[in-house]
């Protein structure tokens, strides 16, 4: 076994042991992280970060406040206790606190979390995935370091934390889709906060789920949304309704004008034909022949005038429709 592998195994063992004794801090990326037991340290105390083959100083306590080194000045305020005002992903690691004659190791885990927003009384699902290994591992959901729900991955036994049994369960997808999501039947206002999904073995945390953290946010219910409203019409539907309205109005106007003209046209044609047809004897017939043979121009009948008027009306009507259609 190489020296690097030995260092890694020793670090892993220390990490597991530290988390078992409560010196483990986990936060969501971007949140602040307060290091425990740093507020009571005397002058001369130091906080360092342990890395392979070296230890790097992070901050030192002078005159009752922690003063960070140059690499951390933008994220650490000079105060009685040491804390990152905002965490970055690379802050994950093992820190050594030398406080007088005491030494404490603190493991900081910075997790990439997701958000879920819900209103009071609504159901909610907090996502977490982890494959079954059919061993003694236990998947655990926690909030404020208190157990919410625990699943034995080998036996399938489920345990609930105080006050959560009747309101939540695990996803029905289960081992088939390695879905270990936490499902709320109804969310209460006190349920908002940060939830962490982790895997433990022999009482020690071994790994984080994916994602390892979910922030449940609270949204106020809009009273106007209690009664469903029909969705607003789209722009295309409104345009289509406007076109149909214009066509309908234009059709009604044209009908009211053209219908009387058709009636007058029929009446004039019938009247003209009655006057032109021969009644009796050959005298009337000879007069008609004489008129047809004459070179004098004939006066236009009323039907011709009406035809011209009808054609003109149709032209203006079609122009009106074409102009008003979108």
Protein described:
This protein has about 325 residues and is α+β, with helices and mostly antiparallel strands. It folds into three domains: about 5-110, Immunoglobulin-like (Sandwich); about 115-225, Immunoglobulins (Immunoglobulin-like); about 235-270 and about 300-325. The chain is about 30% helix and about 30% strand. It contains four helices and 17 strands. It has helices at about 5-20, 235-275, 280-295, 300-325; strands at about 25-30, 35, 45-50, 55-60, 65-70, 85, 95-100, 100-110, 115-120, 125, 140-145, 145-150, 160, 170, 180-185, 195-200, 205-220. The strands form four sheets. It has a six-stranded mixed sheet, with helices on one face. It has a six-stranded mixed sheet with strand order 9-17-16-11-12-13, with helices on one face. Helix 2 (about 235-275) runs antiparallel to helix 4 (about 300-325). The longest helix has about 40 residues, at about 235-275. Mean pLDDT is about 75; it is low at about 5-20 and about 275-300. It holds the Pfam family V-set.
N-to-C SSE string, H for helix and E for strand: HEEEEEEEEEEEEEEEEEHHH
Please state the average pLDDT score. 77
Q: Please give the radius of gyration in angstroms.
A: 45 Å
How does the overall form come out from the CA principal axes? elongated
CATH evolutionary superfamily of the largest domain: Immunoglobulins
Q: Which class best fits the helix and strand makeup?
A: alpha+beta
CATH topology of the largest domain: Immunoglobulin-like
How helical, in percent, are the residues?
A: 25-40%
- Uncertain parts: 3-18, 276-299
Question: Assembly type of the shown chains?
Answer: single chain
Q: What CATH architecture of the largest domain would you give?
A: Sandwich
Number of discrete helical segments: 4
């Amino acid at each position: 076994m190489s020296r690097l592998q030995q260092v890694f195994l020793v670090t892993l063992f220390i990490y597991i042991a530290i988390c078992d004794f409560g010196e483990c801090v986990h936060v969501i990326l971007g949140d602040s992280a307060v290091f425990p037991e740093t507020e009571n340290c005397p002058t001369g105390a130091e906080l360092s970060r342990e890395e392979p083959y070296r230890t790097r100083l992070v901050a030192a306590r002078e005159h009752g406040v922690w003063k960070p080194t140059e690499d951390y000045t933008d994220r650490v305020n000079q105060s009685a206790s040491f804390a990152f005002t905002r965490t970055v992903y690379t802050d994950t690691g093992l820190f050594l606190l030398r406080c007088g004659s005491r030494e404490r190791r603190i493991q900081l885990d910075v997790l990439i979390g997701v958000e879920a927003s819900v209103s009071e009384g609504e159901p909610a699902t907090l996502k977490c995935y982890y494959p079954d290994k059919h061993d003694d591992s236990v998947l655990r959901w926690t909030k404020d370091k208190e157990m919410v729900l625990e699943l034995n991955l080998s036996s399938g036994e489920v345990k609930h934390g105080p006050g959560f049994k009747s309101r939540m369960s695990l996803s029905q997808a289960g081992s088939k889709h390695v879905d270990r999501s936490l499902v709320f039947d109804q969310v209460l206002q006190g349920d908002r906060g940060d939830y962490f999904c982790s895997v433990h073995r022999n009482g020690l945390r071994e790994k984080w789920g994916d994602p390892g953290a979910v922030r449940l946010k609270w949204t106020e219910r809009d009273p106007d949304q209690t009664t469903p409203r029909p969705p607003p019409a789209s722009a295309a539907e409104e345009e289509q309704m406007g076109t149909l309205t214009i066509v309908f109005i234009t059709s009604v106007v044209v009908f009211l004008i053209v219908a009387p003209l058709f009636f007058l046209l029929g009446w004039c044609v019938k009247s003209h034909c009655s006057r032109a047809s021969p009644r009796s004897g050959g005298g009337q017939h000879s007069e008609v022949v004489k008129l047809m043979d004459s070179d004098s121009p004939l006066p236009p009948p009323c039907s011709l005038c009406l035809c011209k008027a009808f054609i003109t009306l149709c032209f203006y009507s079609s122009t009106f429709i074409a102009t008003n259609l979108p």
